[in-house]
Write a structure and sequence with these properties.
Helix content: 25-40%
CATH superfamily of one domain: Gcn5-related N-acetyltransferase (GNAT)
CATH class of one domain: Alpha Beta
CATH topology of one domain: Aminopeptidase
Low-confidence stretches: none
Oligomer: single chain
Mean pLDDT: 97
Structural class: alpha+beta
Shape: globular
Largest sheet: 8 strands, mixed
């Protein structure tokens, strides 16, 4: 299956919201706890610097959001989040999303892509980031509240663009 990653458009929003909400509901990767609806989803995705969607066989398989990580003198550092449809995981969608995000981040003028809160137990994401040249900055003990109520370590990562 050929995977194409392009900038999202409003026709993609329904599927993007469903994929995003599934990750939020899982409660093991995203810090958000509130689900998106049609209005909040449109506002949320529309407020990002860039949103990419991965499509294969005419179906949205995943997405990413890209935005500044900070302001002013640290405004050259961006942050991103990735969500892959549950039935499309393990098929290279994440790699396609992160790879496109690196290109788009540089085009948007960012110099560094930083992930603030990669959950230690998210082994697939951590492995992908390391394969793509990201550097782990350390460990923040108990930095993420899992859905089941226990705290898990988070591992910040960065990559110069």
């Amino acid at each position: 299956m050929e995977i194409l990653v392009n900038q999202y458009n409003t026709a993609d929003l329904k599927d993007m919201i469903a994929i995003w909400n599934r990750v939020v509901e899982d409660g093991i990767a995203f810090p958000q706890t509130e689900l998106l609806d049609n209005i909040s989803g449109s506002d949320f995705f529309g407020s990002q610097t860039y949103c990419g969607v991965a499509k294969g066989n005419g179906k949205i398989l995943g997405l990413y959001i890209l935005h500044p990580n900070n302001v002013g003198r640290c405004g050259h550092i961006c942050n991103a989040s990735y969500a892959v449809s549950a039935d499309a995981r393990g098929k290279g969608i994440g790699r396609a999303l992160v790879s496109d995000c690196l290109i788009q981040a540089k085009k948007c003028g960012f110099r560094i892509l930083q992930f603030n809160a990669v959950v230690r137990t998210n082994v697939a994401a951590r492995s992908l980031y390391e394969k793509l040249g990201f550097t782990q900055l350390g460990v923040i003990p108990g930095g993420f509240l899992m859905k089941d109520g226990h705290y898990e370590d988070i591992c910040p990562y960065y990559k110069e663009l």
